[in-house]
Design a protein that fits this description.
170 residues, alpha+beta, two-stranded antiparallel ribbon, 10 strands, 18% helix, globular
């Protein structure tokens, strides 16, 4: 963990709309010895059940979903702009079709307490799953959101996870 400082999640700096929606994040989990990651730009951070949480959503066909479903913890990591090409690559290529997709990037895997992440992150969140549920189309008050985002009816699974540890690059 050289070059990282652990901080309390309430000390996080930065705008979550920028971090998630514009900078993107990698959602990464481990299953046995295998690691899978995907790029995400939907999610959030806040407080739920008196815990500091991160929310991420995964479509059912994503390989990373299988990994997260088989573990208690995963990481959300945020990178400087010079990682954009690698983040784009792992976002566009599924581990279902290309299990070696990480090896085709400059991403270097590391672990914190058995939870994988990639070196070079400006922010690492180690998250413990608390809640998962598939989005229900009946829940859409604005029906156009369903029509626009779920033409294939592949509704995301929403994961609410406690941010157990947060690390910032020094």
């Amino acid at each position: 963990m050289a070059n990282y400082k652990e901080i309390n999640p309430v000390e996080l700096q930065g705008n979550p709309f920028q971090l998630i929606g514009k900078d993107w994040m990698l959602v990464t989990a481990k299953n046995g010895d295998a690691i899978n990651t995907m790029t995400a730009s939907w999610g959030g951070m806040g407080v739920m059940w008196n815990k500091n949480v991160a929310v991420t959503v995964l479509r059912p066909q994503r390989c990373t979903k299988k990994f997260i479903d088989n573990t208690d913890s995963f990481s959300l990591t945020f990178y400087p702009e010079d990682f954009r090409e690698d983040m784009t690559y792992v976002g566009r290529h599924s581990g279902n079709d290309d299990p070696d997709k990480i090896e085709k990037t400059n991403l270097k895997a590391a672990e914190i307490d058995g939870v994988p992440y990639f070196e070079g992150a400006k922010l690492i969140l180690v998250c413990k799953k608390l809640f998962v549920q598939q989005m229900d189309p009946e829940g859409f008050v604005v029906k156009e959101l369903d029509e626009i985002n779920y033409a294939q009816k592949d509704y995301h699974f929403m994961y609410v996870a406690e941010i157990e540890k947060a690390y910032i690059a020094e």
